[in-house]
Amino acid sequence: MATVQVLSLMATFIYTKERSPQYLVFEEKVLQAFTVFAKLLSCFFRVFIVKNQAKLRLDFAITTQNQSL
After folding, report:
1. What is the pLDDT of residue 22?
2. In this predicted model, what pLDDT tens digit does every residue of 1-38 receive, in sequence order?
3. Which pLDDT belongs to residue 17?
4. What is the three-state SS of the chain?
5. Neighbours of 23 (CB within 10 A)
6. Residue 6: which residues within 8 A CB-CB, separation 6 or more?
7. CA separation for the pair 40, 27 (Å, rounded)
8. Which pLDDT score, from 0 to 100, does residue 18 have?
9. Residues 43, 37: Cα–Cα separation, whole Å
10. pLDDT confidence of residue 2
11. Is the pLDDT of residue 55 over 80?
12. Rounded-to-10 torsion of CA 22, 27, 32, 33
């Protein structure tokens, strides 16, 4: 959510200021790179969370099995 807010603030800043065409191209490339980075970071955290959930489920299953023995 914070990433989306940062991106919208950057886009607002870029398009409210008058810039030279070369600078606009540079800002657009920076914004695209930041967007790709944010998407990769989001994917990483999704994988990290799913991996941790699986580990917690396994730990819970082992604990439950040990308690029943």
Report:
1. 73
2. 566 667 676 666 666 556 667 777 787 888 898 889 88
3. 59
4. CHHHHHHHHHHHHHHHCCCCHHHHHHHHHHHHHHHHHHHHHHHHHHHHHHHHHHHHHHHHHHHHHHHHC
5. 12
6. 34, 38
7. 20
8. 62
9. 10
10. 63
11. yes
12. 100
Determine contact, residues 32/4, Cβ cutoff 8 Å.
Answer: no
How many whole angstroms separate alpha carbon 43 and alpha carbon 46?
Answer: 5
CA distances from 1 to 4, 15, 20, 26, 55 (A): 5, 21, 31, 25, 26
The amino acid at residue 12 is T
Amino acid identity for residue 8 in this structure: S
Angle, to 10 degrees, between the axis of helix 21-68 and the axis of helix 2-16? 180
1, two tokens = 């959510």
pLDDT at 69 over 70: no
